[in-house]
Amino acid sequence: MSERSVSKQTQEKRWYSVLAPEQFDRDEIGETLAEEPDQVVGRTITTTLGDLNQDSSGNNTKLTFKITDVGSDTAYTEFVKYELTRDYLRSLVRRGSSKVEASITVLTTDDYRVRLQPVSFTTKKADRSQEQAIRRVMIDQVHEAAADRSFEELVDSIVEGRLSSAIYGDAKTIYPLRRVEVQKLTLEARPEEVAAEEEAAVDVDTEDVAVDE
């Protein structure tokens, strides 16, 4: 393909400015190139909390957004993932200490299904029963957090460190902790998807019911 042809194809495409959701102040988080608006929908873009807040202390936190709508030359997104960088998580590991992890799927008050993965780091090596007790605290705290929060409120509690602080406060009575983090949050299903799954499950259950004649 000639340089002229490549240049012509590029000229036919448009740059779309990608904005974070209102929850993150509609900040511009990047640009994406496409020929048609519908080609943009569904794309994801990842940035750091540090870039969003202009604060380097948030550079260890990655935020992923998915484009859901396009208007003119602007693409609008929804938040889909929060994740700590591998380098940061590795820096928290110490020899002779315990790393306690959990993975919990919950439903928020506005019916978003979310998977959270908290992690606790102890000051020294904890025994098996202590690790199990710490894991139980993490699971209980995550369930409690989701039970009275919307998806946006749950995300805020993680981004602002309130959920990890709550876990730390309860779990430190079991064994001394050095750090607690939520290492990942993933949006698994939106309310309409959850409703569709529940409806499908009801239909299956109904078909399985035997009818006596």
Topology diagram in text:
Elements: H1 3-12, E1 14-19, E2 28-34, E3 44-48, H2 49-53, E4 61-71, E5 74-84, H3 86-92, E6 99-101, E7 104-107, E8 113-122, H4 128-147, H5 151-159, H6 162-171, E9 177-189, H7 191-208
Parallel strand pairs: 1-5
Antiparallel strand pairs: 1-2, 3-4, 4-5, 5-9, 6-8, 7-8, 8-9
Number of separate domains? 2
Q: Total number of β-strand segments?
A: 9
Biggest sheet details: 9 strands, mixed
Number of helices: 7
Mean pLDDT: 92
User: In the CATH hierarchy, what is the class of the largest domain?
Assistant: Alpha Beta
Give the distance, in angstroms, between the N- and C-terminal Cα atoms: 72 Å
Task: Quickly give the structural class.
Answer: alpha+beta
The rough form would be described as globular
What are the low-pLDDT stretches, counting only 5+ consecutive residues below 50? none
Q: At CATH's second level, what is the architecture of the largest domain?
A: 2-Layer Sandwich
User: Quick one: CATH superfamily of the largest domain?
Assistant: Band 7 domain
The helix/strand series, from N terminus to C terminus, equals HEEEHEEHEEEHHHEH
Binned, the helix content reads: 25-40%
**Cα-atom Rg, whole angstroms?**
22 Å
CATH fold node name of the largest domain: Tetrahydropterin Synthase, Chain A
Strand content: 25-35%
GO biological process, one term: translation
GO molecular function, one term: structural constituent of ribosome
Keywords: Ribonucleoprotein, Ribosomal protein
Family: Belongs to the eukaryotic ribosomal protein eS1 family.
